[in-house]
Amino acid sequence: MTAPTHRANWLLLLLNLRTFVALILVLGFFSFAAPNFLSAANAVIVSKHVALNAFLAIGMTFVIITGGIDLSVGSIVGLCAMVAGWLVLNGVDPGFGWAVWFNTYEIVGIVVLVGVAVGFINGLLITRLNVAPFIATLGTLYIARGAALLSSGGRTFPNLSGNPDYGTQSFPLLGAGHFLGLPLMIWMLVVVGLAAHYISRRTPLGRHIYAVGGNERGAALSGVKVNRIKMFVYMFSGFCAAIVGLIIASQLQASHPATGETFELNAIAAAVLGGTSMSGGRGRIGGTIVGAFVIGILSDGLVMMGVSSFWQTVIKGIVIIVAVVIDQAQSRLQARVALAQEAAR
């Protein structure tokens, strides 16, 4: 192996580990710059924020691996939060002068179905009507946000503490409950993260997701049901967004139609920072979760330092751009190394 190739391999290794390097850097910086950043209480707060970003980023990772994008996840979060609030407070009035009430488990199931249904609509627009993913999910972004606003006339659904008479008293536990000393949402993230990792690495479905993103036409010619794969990833993204909507409504014991605004930016940033290629075909769930930690720690650290929310938005945008630039540089370097190794044989 020549010296230039050896150096290129080391550089590739560093690029592959960039998310961990970024995590160490932000942890080191804020441990000195932000007082009490490493305290146990702040660690719990950060972990909760990371969990919300990570749920959305896991779904976004599958979508981006197929070469798509889902801009609607933030609006799905808001819509699902409002559906949960409506069901807890009002039940469903079928028009006969009496209401149908649902317990917590049934509300969770209904809200998840709403999120998956929006993902299904995204998939239909993209696979059946050949609408570009950016345009399709931009459209559903506005539709879902508008539906959330219409559900309450723009007002908040307050006091979602539940009612024992209808079996909804456990609703606040989704966002505030603990199990073995950790927030319940962290355990939920562990389950979803492990399931997503298993799907991506150990199942034919996972291999087909990567195949669609790597070469869609080649995947179709080899027998992969491309449209079904795309439908799955958008429905899974909707599922993840519904979980986040439920957690936020439960945690705050209130739901507002603006819930989830700009959440899609955090999800995209975490996925790209974690090594998911915007051109499709490459990405890891583990890297995405580490990327969510970087984004979550960055956001909370800036808040603790008193940095303006306007500057926080600017910094997140810079992070996305830098991550994409590094990803493109990694792709070019990998191509050059592959050519050099082929020439040396």
Question: What's a quick, concise take on this entry?
Answer:
Helices cover 73% and strands 1% of the residues. The chain is mainly α.
If you had to describe this structure to a student in words, what would you say it looks like?
The protein is mainly alpha-helical and 345 residues long. It has a domain of 220 residues. It is 73% helix and 1% strand. The protein is built from 14 helices and two strands, in the order αααααααββααααααα. Strands 1-2 form a two-stranded antiparallel sheet. A hairpin with a 2-residue loop joins strand 1 and strand 2.
Give a quick account of the main beta sheet: strands, pairing sense, barrel closure.
2 strands, antiparallel
Low-confidence stretches: none
Radius of gyration: 21 Å
In whole angstroms, how far apart are the ends? Answer: 10 Å
In percent, how helical is the residue content? over 70%
Helix-strand makeup class = mainly alpha
Approximate shape: globular
Number of strands: 2
Number of helices: 14
Oligomer: single chain
Strand order, main sheet: write it out. 1-2
Q: What is the string of SSEs from the N terminus onward?
A: HHHHHHHEEHHHHHHH
- Hey, roughly how much beta strand do the residues contain? under 5%
